[in-house]
Design goal:
4 helices, alpha+beta, DNA-binding
DNA sequence: GTTGCGATGCGCT
DNA sequence: GCGCATCGCAACA
């Protein structure tokens, strides 16, 4: 099922305007469909918290490309997280998809995450990718053509904002957005200091 | 609900 | 080598 052809134009605006527009949008991969409930904005070269802050590398190359593509990365030795690339081509901003509600394909999502409650199936960026079956191979996916597709809805009516989760290197900016009152929004954890081994 | 900590491997300095 | 846009589990409140 292809996405809407006007998606890239809708995502080409400033990241702080695009990020809240993704709340309530629908991310689909095969039979599993997620309604996005929580995101974070990353402002490319201007943002010490962004993977693109120190310039282009092989890993972050997709962030520098056109909007409407998926940037996937591997972290903590075992997890995949995904972002929606936004802003005009040549800039490097993106929106991390942090959490969502499964709205279709519940059985398959449960198979992929057998120990999670339904509320936790896509509560957290790595959990969301796991439930959707998104892997590193999906880095660079065109979100109109698929296999992963994004469909925007109407702008959300009740949006909350706060500091981003788990960053050590960046000053706190209120660039996390979520649907107020949603039970599927991930619990806030401030960045933890390093522990000795 | 909270806090503490180990798992795990790649990207980058 | 060091650090990481995390998670699941155990223990506690």
């Amino acid at each position: 099922m292809p996405g809407s052809p006007e998606l890239p134009a809708l995502l080409a605006g400033p990241v702080l305007e695009v990020a809240p527009r993704l709340l309530g949008a629908v991310l689909r991969h095969g039979d599993v469909v997620v309604r996005i409930t929580e995101v974070e904005a990353y402002d490319g070269a201007n943002d010490p918290g962004s993977h693109a802050y120190r310039g282009r590398t092989r890993r972050n190359a997709v962030m520098f490309g056109p909007p409407g593509h998926l940037y996937c990365y591997f972290t903590y030795g075992m997890h995949v997280c995904c972002n929606v690339v936004c802003g005009p081509e040549g800039t490097s901003s993106a929106v991390l998809v942090r959490a969502g509600e499964i709205v279709d394909g519940l059985e398959l999502a449960r198979e992929r995450r057998p120990r999670a409650s339904d509320r936790d199936l896509a509560r957290g960026p790595a959990r969301l990718c796991s439930a959707l079956g998104i892997e590193l191979d999906h880095d660079g996916t065109d979100l109109v053509a698929g296999p992963v597709t994004l469909t925007l809805g109407e702008p959300a009516a009740d949006v909350s904002t706060g500091p981003r989760v788990g960053l050590r290197g960046a000053p706190d900016r209120p660039w996390r957005f979520w649907l107020t009152g949603e039970p599927t929004v991930s619990a806030y954890r401030p960045a933890a200091p390093l522990r000795r081994r």
